[in-house]
Batch of 2 targets.
Target 1
Amino acid sequence: DIQMTQSPSTLSASVGDRVTITCRASQTISDWLAWYQQKPGKAPKLLIYKASSLESGVPSRFSGSGSGTEFTLSISSLQPDDFATYYCQQYNSYWTFGQGTKVEIK
Amino acid sequence: EVQLVESGGGLVQPGGSLRLSCAASGFSFSSYWMHWVRQAPGKGLVWVSRINSDGSSTTYADSVMGRFTISRDNAKNTLYLQMNSLRAEDTAVYYCARAGGLYCISTNCYDYFDYWGQGTLVTVSS
């Protein structure tokens, strides 16, 4: 099974900060990686697919990069609506999520 | 507008059964693979099961294999998850999700989850 490890688990940041979340796969997954945002009590929302493709309607301040085993999600200028938990997911072999990164207000 | 609406959750005793439904609208349901994903209280997301567009192929996580059955009725635009022999560790919010960007090369297919329902809570407790 492919394991996904995100870091950090929690991130404290201020509005306007640039934020980066890292996701590592236990084996190579090419670029079969997605990122999701989840707010409390709500369903996850797709942000990025195929490692770097922005889902339609998602603000351009979100970006993804990486291939193989190491990936990043960046938010160029954190907005109040971005405080949430973010999950990476590999879909190279079945579907596995990272443990999540909570972005909280500093 | 794509909509996925789950129902059927509730409180069930260990060893009991429950059937979840996911009503789809706003897209051609019969053309899409579908998934179930669960999230235990305060925990992360865990994939549960997948079904292809005509229901001929299904896949399960090891933790539910032999106990859960995914199915669909394309005439009713509805996805199902039959859950038997329920355990306390099955307690979670269950989400249905649509498979987006399906890309198949030979026998390998790749898809992510582009739309999610709001979830339905299943609690397994005596």
Target 2
Amino acid sequence: ETGVTQTPRHLVMGMTNKKSLKCEQHLGHNAMYWYKQSAKKPLELMFVYNFKEQTENNSVPSRFSPECPNSSHLFLHLHTLQPEDSALYLCASSQEVAGGYYGYTFGSGTRLTVV
Amino acid sequence: DAKTTQPPSMDCAEGRAANLPCNHSTISGNEYVYWYRQIHSQGPQYIIHGLKNNETNEMASLIITEDRKSSTLILPHATLRDTAVYYCIVRPRNNAGNMLTFGGGTRLMVKP
């Protein structure tokens, strides 16, 4: 257990479904992230939230919609996904102090399969 | 972030030292070298970081060359559980908006 918990661990969804991924951190961090890891590709940063405000969106399609209701919780809402969106989705958190980001900690990820 | 270059894969015998190289020839003076590893289907795990001095912790040792253009992560007695992808990342320690970004890493296979 790293202090960053992701649920569910595995998810299979159809292209017309709507589902949500959940991330919760118990580390008191104030920044949270979504990363995507497709097969045989490096991790790709998707979204960044700092003090609940989205500070970065790396040209992610609108079928991915993040939500950060507080500094401990992060969601990724999914709708009308494509099979190529199948991947491991990782959540991470860190502490922002004076402009620097420390203590990156990752969850175990959600393995998403779109059918 | 400065670009890093790592071999795509390496093998190591169980119980032997695993030495994972990383080239970062364009590293800037304020950039640290970080190492993370990712065991299959899990999130990346922090291992160690350093600026210019060699560093050691309970997981590994980090050797940085004097010109800081390359480094080596050493796992002194590799076990089967050390089989993972190891990522070498250089980034400033204090830089707003500077997020952790990953390259391809080195896939280390520890064999019995």
